[in-house]
Predict the 3D structure of the following.
Amino acid sequence: MRKVFAQEIIAYARRENCFFLTGDLGFMALEEVRDALGERFLNCGVAEQNMVGVAAGIAREGFRVFVYSIAPFCYARPFEQIRNDVCFSRLPVCLVGNGGGYAYGHMGPTHHALEDCAAMLALGLDVFAPAFDSDMAPLLAKLDGPAYLRLGYDVRPAGETPPPYAPWRRLLRGDKGILVALGPLGGLAWGAFKDYPADERPDVWAVTEMPLQSVPETIVARLNSGQPLAVVEEHVVQGGLGMQLTYLLAALGVNVKKMLHRAALGYPSGRYGSQAFHRRECGLDVIGIQNMVTNEMEIQS
Amino acid sequence: MKDFPALKHKFFAARRRLLKMYYESNSGHLGGSLSCLEALIVLFHAVMTPRDRFILSKGHAAGALYVALWSVGLISDEKLSAFSLDNTTLPGHPSGSGIPGMLFPTGSLGHGISLASGLALAAKYKSSDYNVFCLCSDGEWQEGSCWEALIFAIHNRLDNLTVLIDQNGLQAFGTIDEVASMSDLELKIAAFGPSVVSVDGHNLEAINAALTPAGQESRNDNTKIARKPRFILLRTRKGKGTHFENDVSSHYLPLTKEQYIAACEVLIEQEEAL
């Protein structure tokens, strides 16, 4: 997803008056961005607080500014600068966190981003979690005020083409409840169930934008008819997609009979490994999600 | 304005208004406003053009900034009277909105130089000729982000950036030397390579001389050495001219009626001496 992001930024910068700041990251990924943007590309060094403050200053002069780093260095280290310097003034700064969730795998817990969406949503940023490479251009086109872009890996099933971009997208039709996945887990769930018969798999949806503005009517209708809801997200429960969705459904008066939730659990075994390892520990891998649907997702009468 | 007697009268009027404002609102943080008021009066009356940008990184000196803006006619007396009261546009630390020229909310220390660097960098990119001024405190340099910003500003040759440091030697719970000494701050900053001068921060002429382009070294020289930000350390006393001058209590405590009257009397004496 990062390479596609780099290409889309180059295209974006041809149209828009923007700056791109990096906290000394982007080796073998952002060289073309650096070359294309020239003096609008700045390596701010290993100083993320300063980088966000500088971004706010540049943005105050009328530019959109992208601030790039490994996700936790982008949203956690400079949290107060994001809050005070960017968000209080609603400046057009887009924080780009590479490696949402456990994507940095073996690099260890300091490099994982498990509570990023909640933290950024709490400050009032628009959160974008693209599911597929092809989401990048339409998401960049939607940028307005402060935003957080959570980059991961496109894991769509081989040979498949995602539907046209939308904040909610149905990736598979199924009769066994509703499964909603955040960002790249949509592609994972798509692959997990694409060969299942329709009556043994859920409707699989990908959500790529938060805060949630609405819920598709078809989902509301099926939940009201007693079908179960499953949410999968590579993010902690607190402030994540599941909490937001159930809050919104409650506000809409939707009667959710049963909700299943698979979310980031941190490091339950005290061991560390690849993104696949951590997903497996949290039941966020293909088998974990399949087992959840097979064993726990009975249709309520 | 380079008419220093007139500038001094502007300053005295501003200080009188500042004391009244803090007394009437029963607010603290007067000490840090009194230590930097001269610098703000010089900046707004004698140095800055309408195109220049200013960042108050030591946001707790909001009162001094509000009064300086009042002094140049950008804030009305009525607005000033609502300082730090309910339904005000002038809270105890700047909100960053609703006031001409106030670009960011400040109050948490260690933000201003980065913000100012962003503004200065954008000016360079746009080939705009405005300058950026940032006022921070000395205790603020205990924040690591100040040093991040220092490195950035020097590396990017932001010679359109001037950082003033109100060096009153006091912070919230003691002297800087007691709490977390930075020893010779001027020397430490100078070691990074910018232009650094130290002046009497209560002397309008000295502040003006330090801020005036003629007093700068080769500002228009395009060599790498010459293109660097300026740092001006203002040797000041917190709570200047009040009963709690150079006392930690000036960071927090409001003025009683007696203390307010006494501070006004000091002011009258100084004005008469002038």
Chain A touches chain B through 28 residues (CB under 8 Å). DSSP finds twelve helices and twelve strands in chain A. Residues 2-15 of chain A form the longest helix (14 residues).
